[in-house]
């Protein structure tokens, strides 16, 4: 029987429905059900367990050992639609307590993605108050456990919403941390494409102006000596880390490609 606290936590997270288990999952403990919206989060978090099966993710291999099981439980917690479940009992805190999860230096992935933002990823940048305090980039799904962890990490001074359609539970986080909210007016989006192995943008999810978004990328390139970067940390699409020189080359390729769309 599950520990009462674990049951409470799992209830607040929501649970996948075994009756809706996708037949493409391998037989075993972890599974994905038919409510999956194919957001890619589980495949990024635990690629050794989850894979793409067309319009949904499935479990293609059971997690082995502590590390892989922890990553699979992190995917379960991060899933925006509670589409991941297990037959066996697991301590949900293993996945819950892993968030915010460090990506690099002072940058953390918040997990707890929201269905209303199609599983978009949000990040916490941890900075001393003297340097402006912590910044929450986009909003995760509100969860008391996550908010408590963020509180321990210094709270949120500013919430930066990168585009208007992925704002998730921004109001609840703003109320909890009494932070200033800043909305990016045009909503550019740049990500890593594992298929094309370069930077990409999403023509079908550009709500303002593709021409303006392309010009924005050109401005980034024009000012690259000042604004050079090593990391792409997108809401949708893949994270990528590379040298500033290689990122510049990828940015050039991306702009040329955007002009053909
Ligand atoms: S995280 Fe959830 S919704 Fe997203 S692809 Fe995985 S199972 Fe589907």
Q: According to CATH, what is the class of the largest domain? A: Alpha Beta
The chain-level structural class is alpha+beta
Largest sheet report: 6 strands, mixed
Low-confidence stretches: 1-12
Q: Secondary-structure element sequence? A: HEHEEHEHEEEEHEHEEEHHEEH
Spatially, the strands of the biggest sheet line up as 5-6-7-8-9-10
Shape by Cα distribution? globular
Q: How big a fraction of the residues is strand?
A: 15-25%
Whole-number count of domains: 3
Known CATH architecture of the largest domain: 2-Layer Sandwich
Helix fraction bin: 25-40%
Give the number of DSSP strands: 14
Radius of gyration: 19 Å
Mean pLDDT: 92
**Distinct small molecules bound, one entry per kind:** iron/sulfur cluster
Number of distinct helices: 9
How is this structure best described in words?
The protein is of the alpha+beta class and 261 residues long. It has three domains: 4-96, Alpha-Beta Plaits (2-Layer Sandwich), CATH 3.30.70; 101-183, Metallo-beta-lactamase, Chain A, CATH 3.60.15.10; 191-258, no CATH class. 32% of the residues lie in helices and 16% in strands. It is built from nine helices and 14 strands. It has helices at 4-13, 41-45, 65-78, 93-96, 144-152, 170-177, 210-222, 224-227, 244-259; strands at 30-32, 50-52, 57-59, 84-86, 101-104, 107-109, 123-125, 135-137, 158-161, 180-183, 191-193, 198-200, 231-232, 240-241. The strands form five sheets. A six-stranded mixed sheet has the order 5-6-7-8-9-10, with no helix packed on it. Strand 5 (101-104) and strand 6 (107-109) form a beta hairpin. The chain is globular. The chain starts with a helix and ends with a helix. Mean pLDDT is 92; it is low at 1-12. The structure holds iron/sulfur cluster (SF4). The site of iron/sulfur cluster has 15 residues, from helix 2. Iron/sulfur cluster binds at residues 32, 36-42, 57, 79-81, 83-84, 119.
């Amino acid at each position: 029987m599950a520990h009462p606290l674990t049951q409470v936590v799992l209830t607040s997270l929501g649970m996948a429905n075994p009756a809706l288990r996708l037949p493409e999952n391998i037989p075993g403990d972890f599974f994905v059900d038919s409510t999956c919206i194919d957001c890619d989060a589980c495949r990024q978090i635990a690629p050794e367990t989850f894979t793409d099966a067309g319009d949904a993710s499935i479990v293609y291999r059971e997690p082995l050992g502590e590390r892989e099981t922890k990553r699979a439980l992190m995917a379960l917690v991060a899933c925006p639609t509670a589409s991941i479940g297990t037959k066996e009992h697991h301590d949900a805190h293993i996945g819950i307590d892993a968030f915010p999860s460090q990506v690099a230096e002072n940058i953390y992935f918040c997990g707890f993605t929201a269905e209303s933002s199609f599983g978009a990823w949000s990040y916490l940048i941890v900075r001393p108050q003297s340097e402006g305090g912590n910044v929450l980039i986009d909003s995760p799904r509100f969860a008391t456990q996550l908010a408590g962890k963020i509180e321990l990490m210094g709270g949120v001074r500013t919430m930066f919403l990168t585009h208007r359609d992925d704002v998730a539970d921004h109001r609840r986080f703003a109320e909890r941390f009494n932070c200033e909210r800043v909305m990016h007016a045009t909503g550019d989006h740049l990500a890593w494409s594992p298929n094309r192995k370069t930077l990409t943008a999403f023509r079908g999810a550009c709500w303002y102006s593709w021409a303006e978004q392309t010009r924005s990328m050109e401005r980034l390139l024009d000012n690259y000596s000042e604004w050079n970067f090593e990391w792409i940390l997108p809401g949708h699409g893949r994270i990528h880390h590379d040298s500033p020189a290689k990122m510049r080359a990828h940015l050039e390729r991306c702009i040329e490609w955007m002009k053909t769309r």
